[in-house]
From TrEMBL:
Primary role: One of several proteins that assist in the late maturation steps of the functional core of the 30S ribosomal subunit. Helps release RbfA from mature subunits. May play a role in the assembly of ribosomal proteins into the subunit. Circularly permuted GTPase that catalyzes slow GTP hydrolysis, GTPase activity is stimulated by the 30S ribosomal subunit.
Cofactor note: Binds 1 zinc ion per subunit.
Domain CP-type G stretches: 123-280
Protein name per its UniProtKB record: Small ribosomal subunit biogenesis GTPase RsgA
Entries under HAMAP family matching the protein: GTPase_RsgA (MF_01820)
Positions that bind GTP: T172, K173, T174, D175, G219, H220, S221, G222, V223, G224, K225, S226, T227
Domain of life: Bacteria
């Protein structure tokens, strides 16, 4: 069993903390005047959540200062079912010394810039939040062994575009196969592509893209994601995000994603590795968000009939017509084809309640 699968098996442990479960019902009382019920915690300190392990959070306080320190925290009950996820910025009270055996308390989650989610799929009926505040996602796929599948990459891309996260495609194992034909699937998507092979991992190229960003790495088991992350963050094996001092649990024991800092002279960035993301249910995705990610197509779509799905069978779709008349240039058909595939993966995803 790979650590990927081990991680997935432990996923259940965070059900009870998952605010975004599709089972959550709207609050019938509407928005509650919460400040009446709890203190404001004016003295709270803001920290970054590095990893989550069964109700314990490893957080980084005073990031980038001489006072920077890791601490373990719990969630205050006033957060109710709101889940705290890796990448969150949270407000802490209580003991923030970081000394062994101490626990701080998370009382607030700061507004998130992005939220990478996956929803119900065949094997998992609960929607989960994966990572907060990431602005890039590296989708790792092997040129061979395991054989690459465009549909799978489409699903990752859709989840990223829906969340407003910039996707980067990383093709590994190019020593085993030439990825050119596979890459044609994505020719129309303006996708940033990096290729990597045994002995030729383009570490500098990748690191350059990571500086100043918070980047999630996703990919199926065996594609070489660990190999890649270890090459990029050589200290990953002993880095932050692993050991939980309070529970004493060891490394790689849970479903937690892990955060690693990449440092260069040009600055630093965060790599968030996600062993738990084996599949992406796309039930939560709004096809309109996919269109929005392609501004040229979105502009053309303003001339579509009302309610146009922009799918291949949509009558009088302005996007399809623009491609047919050559308005989108030589690359138009490839662009339309990729775009149709992305939309199709949203439309065919099981929707909530089905
Ligand atoms: N030929 C070749 N093999 C590679 C390359 N990168 C990784 N591998 C091999 O592929 C296998 C899987 O690599 P990992 O890095 O463990 O892959 P992973 O995606 O992290 O997989 P899990 O750990 O199962 O989640 C290992 O045997 C690696 O040595 C590559 O660029 N070329
Ligand atoms: Zn249309």
């Amino acid at each position: 069993m790979s650590w990927w699968e081990t991680a997935d098996a432990g996923d259940d442990d965070f059900d009870e903390f998952d605010e975004d479960s599709i089972r959550t019902r709207p609050n019938p009382k509407g928005s509650r005047p919460r400040t009446k019920q709890r203190p404001e915690h004016k003295d709270a300190r803001t920290a970054r959540v590095l990893s989550v392990d069964r109700g314990r959070y490893l957080v980084l306080l005073a990031e980038g200062t001489a006072d920077e320190r890791e601490l373990t925290a719990t969630r205050a009950s006033e957060l109710r079912r709101k889940s705290v996820v890796t990448g969150d910025q949270v407000d802490l009270v209580g003991n923030v010394s970081g000394e062994q055996g101490t626990l701080a308390r998370i009382v607030r989650i700061r507004e998130r810039s992005t939220l990478l989610r996956r929803s119900a799929d065949d094997t998992d009926q609960v929607e989960r939040v994966i990572v907060a505040n990431a602005d890039q996602i590296v989708v790792v796929v092997a040129a061979a062994n395991p054989e690459p599948r465009a549909r799978l990459v489409d699903r990752y891309l859709v989840a990223a575009l829906d969340a407003g996260i910039r996707p980067i495609l990383c093709i590994t194992k190019t020593d085993l196969a030439d990825p050119t034909a596979f890459l044609e699937n994505f020719a129309g998507l303006d996708l940033d592509v990096v290729t990597s092979g045994s002995g030729t991992i383009p570490v500098a190229d990748i690191v350059e893209r990571l500086i100043g960003h918070s980047t999630v790495f996703v990919g199926h088991s065996g594609v070489g994601k660990s190999t890649l992350v270890n090459a990029i963050v050589p200290e990953a094996g002993r880095a932050i995000g692993h050991v939980n001092e309070v529970t004493g649990r060891g490394r790689h024991t849970s479903s937690s994603t892990e955060s690693y800092r990449v440092r260069t002279e040009a600055g630093s960035g965060w790599v968030i590795d996600t062993p738990g993301v084996r599949s992406f249910g796309l039930g939560h995705v709004d096809p309109a968000n996919i269109l929005k990610a392609y501004t040229d197509l979105a502009e053309i779509a303003e001339d579509c009939p009302r309610g146009c799905t922009h799918l291949p069978d949509a009558p009088d779709c302005a996007i399809t017509e623009a491609v047919e008349t050559g308005e989108l240039g030589e690359g138009g058909p490839a662009r339309l084809d990729s775009f149709h595939r992305l939309l199709q993966s949203v439309v065919s995803a099981p929707k909530l309640g089905e």
